[in-house]
Amino acid sequence: xxxxxxxxxxxxxxxxxxxxxxxxxxxxxxxxxxxxxxxxxxxxxxxxxxxxxxxxxxxxxxxxxxxxxxxxxxxxxxxxxxxxxxxxxxxxxxxxxxxxxxxxxxxxxxxxxxxxxxxxxxxxxxxxxxxxxxxxxxxxxxxxxxxxxxxxxxxxxxxxxxxxxxxxxxxxxxxxxxxxxxxxxxxxxxxxxxxxxxxxxxxxxxxxxxxxxxxxxxxxxxxxxxxxxxxxxxxxxxxxxxxxxxxxxxxxxxxxxxxxxxxxxxxxxxxxxxxxxxxxxxxxxxxxxxxxxxxxxxxxxxxxxx
Length: 306
Prior knowledge:
By secondary structure, the chain is mainly alpha-helical. It has twelve helices and four strands, in the order H-H-H-H-H-E-H-E-H-H-H-H-H-E-H-E. It has helices spanning 2-32, 37-58, 65-92, 95-102, 105-116, 123-142, 154-177, 183-206, 216-241, 246-249, 255-267, 274-293, and strands spanning 119-120, 143-144, 271-272, 297-298. The longest helix has 31 residues, at 2-32. Mean pLDDT is 80; it is low at 144-150 and 298-306.
């Protein structure tokens, strides 16, 4: 019973995290209208770090030297490198193409977890991932998005895919650390370390972040991106993958293009055609099937090479 409850809470946490991440496209679009990619990422993580500051001030990390190395490596890959590359890619391509690229992440994560984390996903799990990714592709190609920022480019699409490959190693680093530490502690110290890295990288690449001439709407979007789409979502994701295999959790990353499409239709007045609706149904069907039928296997932690 305890194991079943743990699995259920893990799936729910990952699904919620994917939904929150999907809101980031909408909030990010608002902020990017008034500042550069680097400055938007800087303020997003500044708000996220403020949300986790009480944890940092009240709880010691308890990490060994080797674990600090894993955390810092994963943080560098997952925060400054991944986010700066991803949002640079988004600035060079369209929302449709970016959503399609994000839809490949569950397969990337499932393959990565199989190769590097010694997980074994059964045929139901692989089928669910394929169906879910097909749904994400239908959503990405089914909506009529605004191309005012320019046409899609190969460079932009490839940067988004590259950022997803980098994100894979951040996820696997965090999952390994959470074998011995709580998701809350790993999330807090990861975000704090990433923010310190951004304090060095962003001014060097983009100049000092602006403090004047930013509308209240943009500040609110940045705060929502930090508190909801970064701090809350990262904690929920870390909690989820500590209780379920990362290969299974990957299907919930397709909640991101699904949520992005819903916000586009309801708030940005974009049109989601029949293929987009079908894609949403495929994602939900795949998620339900995977959480109720699939049984991924994970080798014992002492079998993971150090």
